[in-house]
Amino acid sequence: MAVSLEGEKVILVPYMKEHVPKYHQWMQNPFLLQTTASEPLTLEQEYQMHLSWCQDPLKKTFIVLDKDMVEGKFVHGDPRVEAMVGDVNLYMNDLDNPQLAEVEIMIAEPQSRGKGLAKESVLMMMAYAVENFGIHIFRSKIGESNGASLSLFRKLGFEDTSYSEVFKEVTLEFPVTNAKWEELLHLIGNVVRHT
Ligand SMILES: CC(C)(COP(=O)(O)OP(=O)(O)OC[C@H]1O[C@@H](n2cnc3c(N)ncnc32)[C@H](O)[C@@H]1OP(=O)(O)O)[C@@H](O)C(=O)NCCC(=O)NCCS
User: What is the b/e burial string over 9-24, where b = at least 16 CB atoms within 10 angstroms of the residue's CB?
Assistant: First the structure.
């Protein structure tokens, strides 16, 4: 099984089948469907989607655990469904540039928002992507009305590169050559790898 990564506020764990029912429940929420540009699935389809994500070498998904909700000692391989609050994804799906990755983040549980979990999860995912897949540029596509997410990525140093009238969506990018990269790395303290 892939690694789990423990930061100061979150533990990123591999997306396991035990997580699917709660994930499926989140993805019935119209707000989350809209902000993540997703379609509602049946539970059976969600299990199929989980399998296809796990098998896709170009896609990496971690479930975000809120450490405030993790009781006792965390052991790699534990799904810890009670502490799962969102997910963070990486897609290396640009055929012209294999070193480009799209990042997506969702903190689905309202009580875990506004605590810096999205920020830490995105940064940990970016550092993981640079180290493990040699990613040089990150991209994020955000609906123009999603102020929280736009402000999250802009604050991290992502810059607007284009806007789609059709999808009402802003594309933002962050090249790892950006002088801000080293600063960002300092924002995430020691990340513990559990294997
Ligand atoms: C957007 C989202 C990921 C933010 O998660 P979060 O854990 O609450 O965010 P953080 O606490 O890490 O906040 C980091 C930064 O994001 C911005 N931000 C977060 N929530 C915000 C809000 N409600 N309004 C404005 N800015 C906000 C701020 O710039 C914040 O920095 P600051 O605290 O220094 O001001 C979360 O609200 C969410 O999942 N929304 C629905 C799904 C979604 O929109 N996903 C993005 C598609 S890629």
Answer: bbbbbbbbeebbebbb
